[in-house]
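Deliverable D5.2: sample structural annotation.
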Amino acid sequence: MKIFDVIDEMKGMQPAEGTKSNLLYQADEFKIRRIGLSPRDEILPCRMASNVVFYVVAGSAEVSVDGVRNYLCEGKCLVTGPATLSMKSEEGATILGIQISKM
C-alpha cells in the first residue's frame, strides 16, 4: 500500500528530458503518469494497447481518441479502451494519466 498526495506531488514535477511525462507509480496491472504539456505543445498520435484514464489537474487539452476530438478542461476525466491517442494544449496542461493493463 502507498498513500501520497498525487496533486501536490505533481505540481512541482517537471517532465523528464526528451519526454512529456513522468512515471509516478507502477504496478503489474497499471501505471500512473504525470503528463505535462507546455502552451501550444502536443503529443503525436500513438497506439495504446491498454485502457487509459486521463484526468486534467490544471489547464486544458484536446485529446483525440481514434480521430474523435474531445476537449478536456480542469477537473474533467476521459476514459477509453485501447485506441490511437493524441493530445495538444494551447494554454498548457497537467494531466494525470492511468494506463490499465488488459486482464
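Annotation notes: The domain at 6-100 is CATH 2.60.120.10 (Jelly Rolls). The mean pLDDT is 87.
The annotation will be released with the project's public dataset once the embargo ends.
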